[in-house]
Amino acid sequence: MKILYGVQATGNGHIARSRTLAKALEKYPQIQIQWLFSGRPRENLFGMEPFGDFWWRRGMTFVHRKGKLKSLATLRQLRLLQVGKEITELPVTDFDFIISDYEPITAWAAKIRKIPSIGIGHQYAFLHSIPMPRFNWLFHTILRSFAPTQRSLGLHWHHFGNPILPPIVPPRREPDTEVGEHILVYLPFEDPLPMLEALSKVDRQFIVYGIADTLAAADNIQLKAPSTVGFQRDLASARAVICNSGFELLAETLALGKPILSRPLAYQFEQEANAKALDQLQLAKVVKRIDADSITAWLDTLPTPQRIQWPNVAEAIAQWIADGCKQHPAELARSLWCQVTPAPSEEPTPAYGKIR
């Protein structure tokens, strides 16, 4: 079974999820996977050893400045002619089917050549009725058409009464790490200088990822370069986490039972929707600004969140793929949510909109 697996590399969450799934798929020698990544310069990728001799394409991504998505700047840098060339030249006919983690080159190449395709990722949960902002038709259209597939497995922190799977998080085999006093900060979309100034005014120790580690920082702030192992270690030992509203990091943080302060990237559909879900499910404190006042107010009333134990979703999906993707996604979802503790409420939570 030959599979071309495309991954949107704009954010680290897609890569982290795929890294976990890659290890689960290694158990099935009958599956041959060619990985493809797009949306980030190849030289900026790190921790890519699990993907072997992966392919890279420029693909498409978004432009952000000072914590906001810049729609016009995003449109200007798309280079649609190059994207079209990458799609038409991709040799998808060499594979039995295509899997896309919201990666547009593989998804569109499969659609044009009529190759069977499956979407696996958080964005495919938005094809169901889940919490989401009331953005205009353009955002809805982009969401549906960015990386379309014939079938999909959406991932979310709650099923919302739909055939959505729990998140894919790395299984933890080592004993629980002793919790330290530092607050882990991952705010790659924020303007770094005002953010560092805000942290310097708070009487806590912070470890900051996601910005240049060469910037000057106060004594209570430690800047660290990107590192898969180092980040996981600092996350596990953190007292709490401050982050944007990206899906994968939040899923891992909820699995560790850490208090969360989150600010969505403004005007970015997925993060705005994630923030609504966090607030609705009471999983984190969501704010519009990350500054000294919002951080201090949150730390002064730091809650003790309930740790969510997700099942091994990666292993279940790998088995599903190895069996030829025959089981209906609704059955797969039910079997996995039965293993989540604490069990999610069965009542579908009122959604803010839906895409069909």
TrEMBL record:
Pfam families: Glyco_trans_1_3. Gene3D superfamilies: Glycogen Phosphorylase B. This is Glycosyltransferase.
